[in-house]
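Researcher: Here's the sequence for the chain we discussed earlier.
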Amino acid sequence: MSLKGKAYIAGAFEHPTRKAPDKSVAQLHAECAAGALADAGLTKDDVDGYFCAGDAPGMGPLSMVDYMNLKVRHVDATDVGGSSYLMLVSHAAEAIAAGRCNVALITLAGRPRSEGQATGTAARAGNPAQPDMMFEYPYSPTVVNMYAMCAQRHMYEFGTTSEQLAWIKVAASTHAQYNPHAMLRDVVTVEDVVNSPMVSTPLHRLDCCVISDGGGALLVVKPEIAKALKRPLVKVIGNGESPKGQMGGMVDLTYSGARYSGKMAFDEAGVKPTDMKYASIYDSFTITVLMQLEDLGFAEKGQGGKFVQDGNLISGVGKLPFNTDGGGLCNNHPANRGGITKVIEAVRQLRGEAHPKVQVPNCNLALAHGTGGSLGTRHGSATLIMERE
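Model: Thanks. This is the structure I predict for it:
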């Protein structure tokens, strides 16, 4: 079933905090929900569907529905890491199209900064019940060294350089300077990035995302409700989901599941990568962005380095403005499932509500893409294409 035009994003809110030692994760979820409802002009009594991922405390949607005193008839707790919240937008649209709910609330929140989580450098906890971890856990894989492995392979295969990867951070920082809530607001240079401390060869500290508290929320509604609200109309016109794993040992680190999820989304929307005015790309590391741009069709495989260099991702300067809020590299990364912020900034761009210094003129088509898990092992990819009506 095509979801094109079956659902609209009517509310979007990003929590302004980047450190919340005095708030619980549940409280952050609730504050994000209140913000999105206010943005849309709806109340919690209008909500009849609730969606969250593994960042929600307790029993996920069951705990949060109770905590926020919601009366819903549909819940979803899909958890596929950083791609979770893009998939949840698609699942909300599917639920609306199927008549399971009319107003879907989606919330994310996290406190990794206050809790002192070493998100990228600590060995990933293993569970003996996980078939993959029995083989991998003895080697103490971390998030950053799995992504570094992909970066190293990309450099070996295609001649990609650390300087090219650095341009992605430069673009993010150029945008972040206009975001008063961004954790890192100083504009950096290519030299700053490549001279920052090495974390896992070839990724430097400035190739890595920030770790923050915070969260965000979205409201996905049926068309009739969206058109009755006094908000710009942003409709979902394409979506795609795809996992990529180890494939029985046939490992190729040079591409991701975006190769498949992106094609699904573009085919459903009936548009091409060259039609996009703006792109929100999950940016846990600079290599994450580079690979997704290639796999989504914005650059030929192996040519991502050339595509991003010289400021081509900077709004008002380059071919494809990206992450105009500063993204995970500079703005915030409130949980391992922080992909919701990609949708939020895409909605701002489509509404014309981004900061004037980074707002893309006549932005009528935008893409948001999330990656969850690890590019070096197994991960989920989710792509959304949205249109301003």
